[in-house]
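Possible regression after last week's pipeline update?

I re-ran a chain I had predicted before the update to compare outputs. Posting the input and the new output here so someone can diff against the archived version. Not blocking, just want to make sure nothing changed silently.
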Amino acid sequence: MGFPEVRAGAHSAQGLRSNNEDRYVADTDREVFLVADGMGGQEFGEQASSMAVEIIPHAVQVHLDAHGDPHQAVMQALFDANRAILDASRHQDVGRRMGTTAVVAVRRDDQFYVAGLGDSRAYLIRGEYVEQLTIDHTIADALARNGALTPEQARQSPYRQVLYKFLGCDDLSDSAEVRPFTPQKGDRLVLASDGLTNFIAPDDLITGAARHTDPQEWANELVTLALERGSNDNVTCVVVAFS
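New output (post-update):
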């Protein structure tokens, strides 16, 4: 059968924010895809997310070439970016932290490897099935996973936007889980910042994947839909189509 053809589209909108702290990579040549949502306000968030999209794709390739283990390559690339952002933040004024979320997908042989830090997400859409491949590293979601909150309480919690893990974090010893999957023809992979995922439901992903053969058209539509539904954040997504 062979490996499916990989095509991608991406779109990012500033929304109602004063600047866009989101960054993305949609590299079909190296088959590396990434969304980063900067934190820290103004230039701090922009700097952190820009560092993530610059460092991670290169570091993944270096570690793959050196060691060959895709799980380790993805994890080490995230560690490299984390260390660089921490080093950069030490030169900022006291009390001004900089950080970014990151969700990344990388191909190695016949599989894709997905990992996330923070609350940017990866979704796999396969027919009528949607799977979230990453978890949100927010305090509210951690409490829900431990049974201290119901899913509905977590969605309403003031802690749903408080991250305990991200790039720029002092301690990443317990880091992101790397999830592999084998793409099938017709699959869609969506990487997105929370400005989009907070306003898009699984049904939107199922119907949109069925309706759009062009990943760029669908990426544009997803961002527009999130903004129309009231997202006042930066809104970014990368759509990977396997055909």
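Follow-up from reviewer: compared with the archived run. The two ends are 12 Å apart (CA to CA). Marking as no regression found.
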